[in-house]
Amino acid sequence: MSLSVLSDGRHGPARQAYVIEVGETQAGLVNRRPDERFFTFIAASAAFRALDGQRFATPGAAEQAARLLARPRRDAQPLRLAS
Q: Under DSSP, is residue 69 helix (H, G, I), strand (E, B) or coil?
């Protein structure tokens, strides 16, 4: 996870934004304004679109959700082709 702090050019507290990466893939970013309690996820890849708009208490919680989403499912059945 890498940190970026955005500023709108005005004086006062800046918006906080964090890039969320899973391995070499940029999953998205989370950001919040100074008056917000939670971080909002913005997906950077279609693979993480399920998290788009979700709200997280911390950037670490968003990163964990992205990692869980990217992890292969154990219960997934292999595709069987008709013969």
A: helix
Burial of 24 (0-12, 13-18, 19+ CB in 10 A): exposed
pTM: 0.73
Residues 69, 76: Cα–Cα separation, whole Å: 13
Q: Is 65 in contact with 40 (CB distance < 8 Å)? A: no
Using the predicted structure, report yes or no on whether residue 28 has a pLDDT greater than 70.
yes
For residues 51-74, b (16+ Cβ closer than 10 Å) or e, as one string?
beebebeebebbbebbeeeeeeee
> Does pLDDT of 22 surpass 50?
yes
**Domain parsing of the chain, residue ranges:** 2-70
Look at the chain and count its residues: 83
